[in-house]
What we know:
Blueprint: H1 4-14, E1 20-21, H2 23-30, H3 34-47, E2 50-53, E3 57-60, H4 74-80, E4 84-87, E5 98-101, H5 106-112, E6 117-121, H6 125-133, E7 137-140, H7 148-157, E8 161-163, H8 168-187, H9 191-194, E9 196-197, E10 204-205, H10 210-220, E11 225-228, E12 234-238, H11 240-243, E13 257-258, H12 269-279, E14 283-287, E15 293-298, H13 299-310, H14 319-326, E16 328-329, E17 340-343, H15 357-374, E18 379-389, E19 398-408, E20 412-421, E21 424-436
Parallel strand pairs: 5-6, 6-7, 7-8, 10-11
Antiparallel strand pairs: 1-3, 2-3, 4-8, 9-15, 11-12, 12-13, 14-15, 16-17, 17-19, 18-21, 19-20, 20-21
Amino acid sequence: MATKHEQILQYINKLAIGEKISVRQIAKALNVSEGTAYRAIKDAENKGYVSTIERVGTIRIEQKKKENIEKLTFSEVVNIIDGQVLGGRSGLHKTLTKFVIGAMELEAMSKYTEAGNLLIVGNRVDAHELALSSGAAVLITGGFDTEDYVKKIADEKELPIISTSYDTFTVATMINRAVYDQLIKKEIILVEDILTPLQNTAYLYTDDTVQKWYEQKRETGHSRFPVVERNLKVVGMVTSKDIMENDNNIPVEKVMTKSPITVSEKTSVTSVAHMMIWEGIEILPVVDELNRLKGIVSRQDVLKELQMTQRQPQVGETIDNIITTQLDASSQKSDHGELFQFEVTPQMTNPLGTISYGVFTSLIYEVTNRYLRSLKKGEIIIESMTTYFIKPIQLESLIEIVPKVLDLGRKFAKVDIEVFNKGHLVGKVLVMSNLIER
């Protein structure tokens, strides 16, 4: 039977797009406490079912698919620019396709303003009316208001009119940045993208016997299974090591490993890879906020996805992406083999104009990874990194990075890295890493 929390989420999910909800309304409709209703609404907001806007309230919005995450709803725009909704509240759930800067004559503006657009303009009532008649929403900059008859048109057409105190340039920059951040998030692979869902997951109940484990093993070919209570709450993991030399009639609850490591659907695949390597785990249960089983993720799934991700083009580039693309393996060779070259650009510096520690660390990680891959040693997980800054690395410096293996085993590597600028040693790093075999 569904919990009150789940019942509220199901209720919200069935509401019409654009419908307004409140804690008091939910509590009254489902006969639950306001505290329970509040927590469920916050959870729904995290899942993307609803959006809460200051001075407007909470409204049901269309849950966006990940591949369309670069598009924003008007309600998200309100939150980004700290706006005030003047009219057309019932259209806040709609998605904008592009925004148009209204710094032109009215006739020219009509050529660029289409349905689904957001017109960013100042105190020009005629432009507000034109945009609404074209099916576009309006964002008024400078903190200005508009006429009442325009607000009435917005309500009739269900197209929001939003006012903000920011100027046009600042607003456009803020929205652009929000879209860009969404593009970066889109490229981060999460557990929910690769998990084996519950309906395809083999698991055991606490009162199942060891005999049931053998049956599951024959059917699936696997030997590791999550152990759950009847409400699907994960309480353990059972493997072939746990089963060995135990009677077939013993409940798995008696032999399982209790309090297993679990992950959520929003955990990044990189974090899962790190967990699996350090803990020596082949399979991790995926759970919800109440620790109930949602599926599993295996080491093979993780490694396959990491290899696929490396071959994908980057749309919203992070500093790490920029480092990866700008780092060149020089045609020259050092006495120890590989030699990498890298130019320090303005966005990679600290306020003093020298390379930032975070960028330098990312650079060393990328060099170490490439160097060990060239030796056919697979991917790495850094265990420790000891860094010595001998001289500051200036803006627009072309640096040469020379890695050298100190010790190399099947599952570990020690690498000494020297960094040169114009022939002078400027940095030295000792990297200890674990190796992930391909």
